[in-house]
Amino acid sequence: MISVSFIKALQYFPEEKNMAKAKKKSPAKAAPKAKTKEMVIVSSKVKGLIRGNDCNCSSDALDGLNGLIYWYVDQATKRASANGRKTVRAHDFTL
């Protein structure tokens, strides 16, 4: 039997009566991978060039070179467009 004083105590602390259960933690999800650009260089050939100069190739070197190639192409297409052409020519690849 529930005493009257217990019921009165529940009126003062209603959250204790209906306390929510702790949420279960879901397993940690892997961070979404950044979208990588399609590789436009031949990895084996570039690694061969690097090794031919007595150097090692790090895991991110090819991604960096690939990004640089994308930047050069973007700059060349902008220059060709600025000159009123749709054809990218060798002199559009300038620094």
Characteristic terms for this protein:
95 residues, 4 helices, mainly alpha
Could you describe the 3D structure shown?
The protein is mostly helical and 95 residues long. 47% of the residues lie in helices and 0% in strands. The chain is built from four helices and no strands. It has helices at 4-12, 14-17, 43-52, 61-82. The chain is flat and about 70 Å long. The termini are far apart. The mean pLDDT is 81.
Q: What's a concise summary of this model?
A:
It contains 4 helices and no strands. It has helices spanning 4-12, 14-17, 43-52, 61-82. The protein has 95 residues and is an all-alpha fold.
Summarize the main sheet.
none
Report how far the terminal alpha carbons are from each other: 88 Å
How much helix, percentage-wise, in residues? Answer: 40-55%
Unreliable runs, pLDDT <50, ≥5 residues? none
Shape assignment? flat
Rg on CA atoms, Å: 32 Å
Percentage of β-strand residues: under 5%
